[in-house]
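Hey team,

Filing this mostly as a record. A colleague (T.K.) asked me to run one chain through the structure pipeline before their review meeting, and I want the input and output archived in the tracker in case anyone asks later how it was produced. No errors, nothing strange. Just documentation.

Input sequence:
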Amino acid sequence: MAAPGDVYERELRSLLNGEEKAVDKMVRTCNALETAAYRSMVLNPFLVIRAAGSLGVDLVALRWDFSFPIEVKSSSDEVLHFSKSQRLVEQADGMLEDCCRSHLVPIYAFRLKGFRGDPWRVFTIPTDHVFRGRNAVLYRRIPKLELSESGNYIMRWRDGMKLSDLILYTGMTDYKDTG
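Output structure:
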């Protein structure tokens, strides 16, 4: 039997891969803009790879214009406190360190269970690191995980960017086809 979070990892992978069946299922309760964003994945998908083992990353999304590692979290509670698990803190710190070395924006995708509409929100980890190129712009646009007074990360679902908005943003291109 699969671990509880695996269902949502597979859902996100299928959505970003542009699998029509997954997209059709997701957009049933989405508004018109969310639906258009998800449907755009069918024509402009990412190659999404599930990470093996516990690398601090569940998925890696790759495409000609953007690539990012994704850690997937799901809950029926709207707030996730990393302080509840030392493993979560270490995982976030390790992911940030690895991403900074390669100038990739670390993404947390938070799936709120039972929500009608776009149930996915994305975040990144706050850092003073200076990202390069398009990743610098992406990092500025994505909401950061909140830090508690004691320095622990907090993920508030309502404060995240809709996954559909991230999809729309990454789908905007200023490059011309020169081929």
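Quick notes for T.K.: DSSP finds six helices and nine strands in the chain. The two ends are 47 Å apart (CA to CA).
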